[in-house]
Amino acid sequence: MAGRSPVVLNQIGALVGERIAAHPSRPTVLRHEDGRPPWDIPDGVEVLLTRPLIGWDAAPAARPAGWGRGLRWIQSASTGMDVYPPWLLDGAPLVTCARGVSAVPIAEYAMAAVLAFEKRLDAVRLRGPEDWRREVLGGLSGRRLGLAGFGAIGRAVAERARAFGMSVGAVRRSDWAGSVSGVEPFDRLEDLIAASDHLVLALPLTAATRGVVGADLLARAKPGLHLVNVARGALVDQGALLAAIEAGRIAGATLDVTEPEPLPAGHPFYRHPAIRLTPHLSWSAPDVEPRLAERILANLDAYARGAPLRDVVNVQAGY
């Protein structure tokens, strides 16, 4: 059971630190020192609040000597755990993630991408009377949106897509426990991509999903498919995607994530007219950090009572 006043190392940010410090368990909150490797944990720390993009990508391949000594709980600010070294999960203390915290802004981004593709507002924007012309815009009603992944993000996208009159199909890695109103379950991604006008990738990146969108899968796509990736760049074979677009098998792609991030200068994705790139920001919204703080506080409540925590990472599955 947790101690009455745990020592917490906060690597997430000031707002979270302030909220945690005010918790009734009266934790001692240590601030992460700039430039210090995130795996270099001071002695006595019981709870680690951490996030990607603070140096975990440079973590050593082997577990550092003494890593995890005294740690009882690690809370990640991200949903995906692929950003961390394998040894963080291997034999680690309890690890929880921020599953669902950014589901709504990510779903809004996905629907904005679908609308931008269908309505082509950038392309039909007038810059003078010489641009005046009549065109037929696309629509969402009656179109099929496919979801590769049906966790919190997939459910949030489905809810919004149905409001636009779209039909929704989905594949998920776990079994379908029962029917979901307005969502058609698919057993295979190959069948889903063949039936979809828009395919949204919302899968975790694991050894099983890396490169899942490759040449073979893209060859099965419904003509005119629009691919939206809000998950991880490594889900997609980027060379195969470019070839499929150039060959006319895929109409376009909206990519909030790539492999690597950012792509190197001169990469063809930057200037391709059928590809829209954004800098991994689909998760962002004004209320995300406060929502994350509330999630961590709820887990801290449970931790202080010795009760089960929410959103515990499945070490075997990797998410």
From TrEMBL:
Ranges where the D-isomer specific 2-hydroxyacid dehydrogenase NAD-binding domain occurs: 131-282
InterPro entries assigned to the protein according to its UniProt record, in alphabetical order: D-isomer_DH_NAD-bd (IPR006140), NAD(P)-bd_dom_sf (IPR036291)
Keyword terms of this UniProt record: NAD, Oxidoreductase
Domain of life: Bacteria
Transmembrane parts of this sequence: none
First and last residue of the signal peptide: none
Keyword flag DNA-binding: no
Record's protein name: D-isomer specific 2-hydroxyacid dehydrogenase family protein
Species in which this protein is naturally found: Azospirillum argentinense
